[in-house]
Amino acid sequence: MFLLQLGLIGLCIALLPLSYVWVKADDDKFRKLVWLTTFLTLDLIMFGGFTRLTDSGLGCPDWPGCYGTSSPFIAHAQIAAAYQAMPTGPVSMVKAWIEMLHRYFAMAIGVLIIAQMVIAWTARVKKRPLHVSPWWPTGILLLILLQGAFGAWTVTLKLQPVIVTTHLLLGLALLGVLGWLAARMTPIPSLDTAAARWMPAAAFGLILLVVQIALGGWVSTNYAVLACTDFPLCNGQWVPPMNFEHGFHLWRALGMTGDGDVISQDALVAIHWTHRTFAVVVVLYLLWLALRLRRFESLRKPANGVLLMIVIQFLTGMSNIVLQWPLPVAVAHNGGAAILLLLLVMLNFRISSSRPGRAAVPARDVVSA
């Protein structure tokens, strides 16, 4: 019964953006739905970071509901008992609501993607020119189901770092695929075929960023942000004592080594130092790439966006250390990484579209379903 209640909550939340798209008086409803889903997915990723950073990941220690119910309201007695037994533990009414809101919004994103799939398959059956294969939203739905499975394991395996990091990366993969689809549905004013030769460089930049985000996720899920308390040095040294073996042992419990011992400070330093050092490589490469790509008119706006986000990421990353990990800055740093990924996806799409024989979708050819 509570599963049906959860589904209805997700549906009710999804009806708000669906209604917004459908009341717009134009013929680009499917494209607007894709863009709106992309934007809301970005918001969900940032809220997921907020959930993790407020230690709310176990606010409801079961899944998909909260103590077998659809709402912390209904589970009030169980939450109060858990909080009374352990006031400093992971369960409280505030944390339960943060965790359940994250789940509600995730279900709403799932409903929006199901709506995309229904529209695309209906257009295929009725032979309407939607200019997108229905397998796109179908594949995205499979991706969000996999993401949901890792969300469940995040709870049931008690925030195991490799599961939480994979959950983050799958969320970013979802954002990237939605961003690519949104870009595919949007006409580009002009294309320069000379930009096509930058496709390998842009793809490599995206790969570097994904690796850096994975390292950042590993820092966050292991709570290693303050393992280095100064900048640019790490605990007063350029190369401090580190334990890479324990720090990067993937399959282990939170705060423990693979052998079941408490993880050492040197292991946390290794995690933090690696993320910080690799950031130098990524920043220098992306700066060079964006400065080169902004020479092309069709790439100038996303390239400028990459330059701006690199500056913001540097400032928020440094502030996390200097200001002792304030919550708004930490959430902004997570969101900045997601925005940077989305911008690089847009750049890669536009460069790919610059190849001879590849054309953008004309705006007048995209119709509602």
Automatic annotation (TrEMBL):
The chain crosses the membrane at residues 6-23, 35-53, 104-123, 135-156, 162-183, 195-215, 273-291, 303-323, 329-349. It is found in: Membrane. It holds the Pfam family COX15-CtaA. The lineage of its organism: Bacteria, Pseudomonadati, Pseudomonadota, Betaproteobacteria, Burkholderiales. The keyword Cell inner membrane does not apply. Its main location: membrane. One of its GO terms (cellular component) is membrane. The keyword Manganese does not apply. This is Cytochrome oxidase assembly. Pathway: Porphyrin-containing compound metabolism. One of its GO terms (biological process) is heme A biosynthetic process.
